[in-house]
Amino acid sequence: MEHIVPVYVLTGFLGSGKTTLLNRLLDEARASGRKVAVLLNEAGDANVEGFMLGSDVPMAELLGGCICCTIRADLGMELTKLAREHRPDAIWIETTGIARPLEVLDSVTEASMYEKLELRGVVAVADARHLLDRVRIGAGKTYKLMREQIAAASFVVLNKTDLVGAAELAELEALIADWNPRARLVSTVRTQLEPDSIYGSDRSFAATGIGAPETGSADCDHGHDPHPHAHSHSHGDPSAHEHINALTYYLPGPIDSRAFEEWVGSLPDSVYRGKGVVTFRDTASRFLFQYAYRESDFLKITPQGTVHDVLVLIGEQFPREELLKQLERLAAPSQ
Ligand SMILES: Nc1nc2c(ncn2[C@@H]2O[C@H](COP(=O)(O)OP(=O)(O)OP(=O)(O)O)[C@@H](O)[C@H]2O)c(=O)[nH]1
């Protein structure tokens, strides 16, 4: 089977250690002969750190906006390009720290129709000292954003622990576990960690699920006009500790339309969104499939370039393995 490029999102407040972690991951990739590509998003018009990652790193930059709002379509395009031109072993998206991971997820799933990509995780880096100071204040935009980033992560790196005492560290670890009980947490100095603790083996990281922001607030609160539709479809129930998973499945060939519709009708409520491209063997046509809160929609398409048959499901703690098996049955030639 063709290689599916794993995609990771790196988030975290300004100065928390994102670039330090990225450099560490890139060094490890070089040492082990793996190619890691990077997509950098800077809110300003100039990228000041791209050159520091090394000229051997396939890189794309999205400048002058936040991934989650103004330049979402560009993200999908750049991801597709990086995957197509460089065939990397992984792609890391370093966000400005103000992007909301759920919207980034949306762009990644969009891109997965054109290139074989799969979002595997959202990694949040937090500055222990800064976080503790904000916790002590207990309010404010920065505090809210830090908390949201941690709640949205599937992996939390509590960095700069050299700047806090042992009791403070224990307090922060307990707090993070409370904000996001499902995320893996590692405490580090200079983001010193074992890259395999993030990559895991095979697809295990994807199966841990990707957390959603705890507050579910719909606005990007960082000084530019959010796209009016950019957030309307990805928040779901804004209850506390909502956690989502994503499942990406590349269909090996055409499927039966009736069996597919039946399967869609049987999806559990925990799957609240789906999309993809399917080819039906009985009608010999291709469709763009959209699914949201039990409503599905099929749009006949005749794509010009390469478009893969793929299904992406997004939901809240849905039975991922079971759905994967169902999809495999659906895709079996005898169906
Ligand atoms: N004391 C201390 N400093 C650290 C640690 N990790 C990183 N730093 C320093 O913190 C500064 C910011 O680190 P970066 O990796 O650039 O942080 P960033 O999140 O990429 O920053 P932005 O690009 O501004 O968002 C650098 O000077 C690092 O050397 C740590 O564990 N302890």
Give a written overview of the molecule:
With 335 residues, the chain is of the alpha/beta class. The chain has two domains: 239 residues, Rossmann fold (3-Layer(aba) Sandwich), CATH 3.40.50.300; 81 residues, Hypothetical Protein Yjia, Chain: A,domain 2, CATH 3.30.1220.10. Helix content is 31%, strand content 26%. It is built from ten helices and 13 strands. It has a seven-stranded parallel beta sheet, sandwiched between helices. Strand 6, helix 6 and strand 7 form a beta-alpha-beta unit. The longest helix has 15 residues. It starts with a strand and ends with a helix. About 12% of the residues have low confidence. Bound molecules: guanosine-5'-triphosphate. Belongs to the SIMIBI class G3E GTPase family. ZNG1 subfamily. Keywords: Chaperone, Hydrolase, Nucleotide-binding. It catalyses: GTP + H2O = GDP + phosphate + H(+). This is CobW family GTP-binding protein.
Structural class: alpha/beta
CATH architecture of the largest domain: 3-Layer(aba) Sandwich
**Helix percent band:** 25-40%
How is the quaternary structure best described? single chain
Separate helix tally:
10
Task: Work out the radius of gyration.
Answer: 20 Å
Q: Tell me the domain tally.
A: 2
Catalytic activity: GTP + H2O = GDP + phosphate + H(+)
Keywords: Chaperone, Hydrolase, Nucleotide-binding
Pfam families: cobW, CobW_C
Family: Belongs to the SIMIBI class G3E GTPase family. ZNG1 subfamily.
